[in-house]
Amino acid sequence: QKEVEQNSGPLSVPEGAIASLNCTYSDRVSQSFFWYRQYSGKSPELIMSIYSNGDKEDGRFTAQLNKASQYVSLLIRDSQPSDSATYLCAVIDSGYALNFGKGTSLLVTP
Amino acid sequence: EPEVTQTPSHQVTQMGQEVILRCVPISNHLYFYWYRQILGQKVEFLVSFYNNEISEKSEIFDDQFSVERPDGSNFTLKIRSTKLEDSAMYFCASSEDTSTDTQYFGPGTRLTVL
Fold first, then answer.
1. What is the 3-state secondary structure (H, E, C) of B45-106?
2. Chain B residues within 8 A of A98 when measuring between CB atoms
3. Which residues of B lie inside 8 Å of A (Cβ-Cβ)?
4. CA closest to A104 among chain B residues
């Protein structure tokens, strides 16, 4: 079973701080990586995709991918209380299926 | 902005009954997917569908499950004889092009099997 591992949290950060979320994956051939946000009782909402080693920035979000270390992370700058949610790391190992981690719960405190 | 829609939002059924969950993918998308999420657990892949046939399925997607694209817009998931353990959120997703393309999720159907 190909694994996508995330710390379940909760990760608590004060408003305005940087939140750092981490994910490791087991399949070396994985090529596509995604971060989704999920509010309680809602569906996963795409934040970012990343396919190449390095950083990718979109507004307050930065995804970082290191394929040699099989590691992908998400940084959220200037965290807001509305960012409080569960963040899901997902990987396409091969084929079509998204393989999700269990998610990290983020709490941004005012 | 185009979005994936799903109906119903909540379905309650008796064990052993058949249910059909419906999805309308984003109109220019070619790949369609079903996922489920049991309460408190991770999102799990069920099946992907392309060009009117299943392209990939998981071990969860056994003979009790089937998918269909009955017309040009709808995509359905049928569970033939529901079990208590089928209770979950079921999410439909679609992507525009290749299998590595971003998948956009619908709001989900909460299935409760009594």
1. EEEEEECCEEEEECCCCCCCEEEECCCCCCEEEEECCCCHHHCEEEEEEEECCCCCCCCEEC
2. 33, 35, 43, 45, 93, 103
3. 31, 33, 35, 41-45, 48, 50, 55-56, 58, 89, 91, 93, 99-100, 102-108
4. B42
Peptide bond into B8 cis (omega under 30): yes
Dihedral over Cα of A103, A81, A71, A44: its sign: positive
pLDDT tens for A72-92 read: 999 999 999 999 999 999 999
Q: What is the pLDDT along chain B (114 residues), one digit of tens a residue?
A: 789 999 999 999 999 999 999 999 999 899 999 999 999 999 999 999 999 999 999 999 999 999 999 888 899 999 999 999 999 999 999 999 876 689 999 999 999 999
